[in-house]
Amino acid sequence: MRLMRLLAPLLCAALLSVTPPAAATDETPISLADKAVTLTPSPAFQYVAGADTQGFLSRHWQGRPLAGGAGLGLLVPVGSAPQPAWLVALSYDGSGHVSDLDAGRLDADALLSALKSADSGGPRLAGWAQPPVYDSASHTLIWATRRQADGGAVDGLDYHARLLGRRGVLGLDIAARMSDLPAIEGQMPALLSMVRFTPGNGYRDYVPVADQSVTLGLSGLVAGDALVKGGLLDHLWNGIRSQNFIYLVAVLIMMLGAPRLRRYWGPKPPPARDQAPPIPPPPPKREDYDGPKGPWS
Question: Per the record's keyword annotation, is Signal included, yes or no (predicted)?
Answer without folding.
Answer: yes
